[in-house]
Amino acid sequence: MTKQLNAVVNARLQDQKGLYRLEISNGRFSAIATQSETTTAKEGELDAGGNLVTPAFVEPHIHLDAAMTAGEPRWNKSGTLFEGIECWSERKTTLSHDDVINRATQTLKLFAAHGIQYVRTHVDVTDPKLTALKAMLEVREQTAGFVDLQIVAFPQEGIWSFRNGRELMEEAIRLGADVVGGIPHFEFTRDYGAESVRWLMELAHKNDRLVDVHCDEIDDPESRFLEVLAAEALRLDYGSRVSASHTCAMGSYNDAYCSRLFRLLKKSGLRFLSMPTESLHLQGRFDSYPKRRGITRVPELLDAGLKVAFGQDSIRDPWYPMGNGNMLRTLDVGLHACHMLGMSQIERSLELITDNAAAALDLKEYGIAEGLLARCIVQQGRTPYEVLLGQQPVIASVRDGELLVHREPAKVQGGLLLQ
Ligand code: FE2
Fold it and tell me: Is 138 a residue of the active site?
């Protein structure tokens, strides 16, 4: 198989009947045509084998600077977000440029093997030397052949609550971070939290940057920085460029408050990112029984017409010791935790790790259509349901017409995977 393709054949497309041939020229889809029957792939053609072909996966929320550091210098014994931050602040003192580059690149290669071609990473900028940020800017250049990487200037220990927090954020943006981050629920006071949100929104607006705030990542129903973020996004008419990550507290809000809040959220058009594996692990830690799931109101947000995507958040770091780069695992957990296993929800579920995440990243060119960059993955299964049942790694990942990943499919009989 040559690496540069001129077509993907025997492709099944979501919401379409039959098989398709996707022509590629100059790295773009040049024609998409139905096939009357299964065809034999010729030289330069990739045989999708009747499996589902979708746009590449998008990982909208990960921390690559902390990836693969679980247990260093110690394990997070309590399993709380706050002990995770303590462990990380100890590990952070030993960070080096090469250390960050090696772990981030290793993780991005793992993601690429699972069909992820777009990644948004938060990078901790509460470090006077900005070691991780400077390394990640290099990683963004070095890995551009297989991933589009967005970098968030993320103030892990606060903007108002960390010495020179504002200056470090401004410097990170000046150096080239794509996205302005925040962590209002972790600031020392409620006032600091609200002020930090107003300030970071102005910073993003002034510098024409996207926004992605760790917002209300706590089970406290009094943590209500989402309303501040949404109101600022509305005021600046910036909602489609602003992501609210986590919003775990919404799982603890009362319904009367949510009813008022949703009016604002719909007007603002914010994007929502939920990290179900991480939140199930970190939240509910201060509850006895019943224990809360600590996950935002995903189906309700979707029903309100808002874009919600799932992310992994961590790969073997101080907050979460697990993770393998397979977005289908994250999706499966999220659908379970959010009571979203109705068949109509399953059929639409891949949007949570493709289109909706692409909207959060404000990607200008994403999807399978004539004229767009020829980026797609061949999943294992003919329908989203079969793909989710198997949770197998992608058969292929194509980027600008080049075959990045190709592996033998699992054996299937009658639509069922044989183990
Ligand atoms: Fe995060």
Answer: no
The answer to whether residues 388 and 329 touch, using CB atoms and an 8 Å cutoff, is no
Residue 277 contacts residue 311 (beta carbons within 8 Å): no
pLDDT digits (tens, 9 = 90+) for 221-263: 999 999 999 999 999 999 999 999 999 999 999 999 999 999 9
Euclidean distance between CA atoms 391 and 394, whole angstroms: 9
The string of pLDDT tens digits covering residues 347-396 is: 999 999 999 999 999 999 999 999 999 999 999 999 999 999 999 999 99
Of 83, 187, 217, 232, the catalytic one is: 217
Does domain 3-50+368-417 correspond to CATH entry 2.30.40.10? yes
Structure tokens at 63: 């921390």
What distance in angstroms lies between residue 369's CA and the mean position of ligand 1's atoms? Answer: 32
pTM of the predicted model as reported, rounded to 2 decimal places = 0.97
In the chain, the N- to C-terminal Cα span, in Å, equals 27
Give me the architecture of the 57-360 domain, per CATH: Alpha-Beta Barrel (3.20)
